[in-house]
C-alpha cells in the first residue's frame, strides 16, 4: 500500500472573453476564462492515457486503504477567496471489491475531476480526498476551509481523509496549464508545465489525516527479566488504544513541502479524548479525567487466545488515530491486558501461579531506542505513518493500565515501509 497518494493536476485554459466597456471588463475578470482538470495515480505509475477518460471515476484498481470515494478540488484566488471547485464521487455500484482480482488492489477509486471553470492569473489549489465538504459552490475562503475539523468516527479504511498542501500556481490564459505532470506528458498535451513536486516525481502529494497503530505480534518471553520464575502462558483479554484525539483539522494552509503539514488540534475537551477501555482511572500516562469510550478502539478475542512460553501470536489489531504530539499524561497509548501464568522460582508445574488482568502499556513512539528510515524523526503520533508494534511480554506487568510500571524496559526499532509504515519492536516486562 502507498500512504502517499500521487495526484496529477492539469489546468485547461481557454481564454475567450472580450470586453467592450469598463463595466464589462470588471465583470470579465470575475468570470471563468479557463478550465481545470485533475487526475490521480495512487500506484505511482504515470497514467499517460488519463486525459482520454470519459468520466470522473477510476478505471484502475487500488488497495482499500488507498481508495478515494470522493475527490474534492478547491481553487482559490491569490488572496484566498474562493474561485471554483468540483467534486468527483465514486458511484455506490463501484464501492464493492472487484471480483476475480488477486492481490490487495481490488477497489475502484475516484481518480480525476474534469472541466472545472477557473480564471487565469495567480491562484491557489488544494485537494481534499474523502472529506465531508464539497468543493462545488463552496464559496468560503481558503482559511475557513482549512479551519474545519474532521472526526475520527469518519475515518475508516476505504475512506480515509487526505489533503494536499496549498499549491500556488500561475494560470496562463489561452494555454493548457499542467500541474503535476511530467514534461513529456505536458508536451504530448501541448500544454505549459506550471507545477511539479519534483522532476522525478511531478505528481502532487496527498497525505492521510490519520496514523494507524497496529499490534503485529505478541510474544511471551521464555524467561522473566525480574527473575520471579518461569513463564508458562499469557491469555489475551483485551487490546486497546488510549489517549486518542478524536478531532483533526481538515487541511493546513501551509505551502511548505515535506511530510505533510500538521493537522493536530491542540486543545480538546475531556470528552473529546477517546479510549477503547478504562476511562475512570488516571495515572502517570493519563492525566485526563474521564474520556469517551469507543468500541472501534478496542479488540476483544472472540475465542480463547493463549500464548505459550517462547511462542509468538500474530495479532494484526489496527486502530486509526489522529495526530497527538503531547507529552506524558496525554500521549497516545497501546495497551494489552491479560492473565499471566508462571512457575515461581524453585517451584514445579504443580505450583503455577496465574495473576489476572495484567496491563502492558506502550506510549506509542515516545519511549525506547528509536531509529527512522524514510521518515523525519518525531515523537508521538504523526499523520501518514503506521506504527507496527511487536510486543514481547517478559514479566507480570502491572495492575494499573496508566502506571509507569506497565511499560518498563521498552526497546523500539522503527522502519518505514511502502506507505510509511513504522515497525516498533517492543520488549515489555
Would you write up a description of this structure?
The protein is mainly β. The chain is built from three helices and 27 strands. The protein has helices at residues 22-30, 142-147, 183-188; strands spanning 5-13, 34-41, 57-62, 70-77, 82-89, 107-110, 112-118, 121-129, 149-151, 162-163, 167-171, 176-179, 191-195, 204-208, 210-220, 229-242, 244-245, 247-249, 273-275, 292-293, 298-299, 306-308, 312-322, 333-344, 353-363, 386-393, 421-428. The strands form six sheets. Strands 1, 2, 4, 5, 7, 8, 10, 11, 12, 13 and 14 form an eleven-stranded mixed β-sheet that branches. Strands 16, 21, 22, 24 and 25 form a five-stranded antiparallel β-sheet that branches. The longest helix is centred in the N-terminal third of the chain and has 9 residues, at 22-30. The chain is elongated, with a radius of gyration of 25 Å.
Report the average pLDDT across residues.
81
Total beta-strand segments: 27
Number of helices: 3
The number of domains is 2
Beta-strand content: 35-45%
**Head-to-tail CA distance between termini:** 33 Å
Assembly classification: single chain
Global geometry: elongated
Rg, Cα atoms, Å: 25 Å
Name the CATH class of the largest domain. Mainly Beta
Q: Tell me the helix content.
A: under 10%
* Uncertain segments: 10-28, 41-59, 409-418, 420-429
Q: Do you know the CATH architecture of the largest domain?
A: Sandwich
CATH topology of the largest domain, by name, is: Immunoglobulin-like
The helix-strand sequence is EHEEEEEEEHEEEEHEEEEEEEEEEEEEEE
Structural class: mainly beta
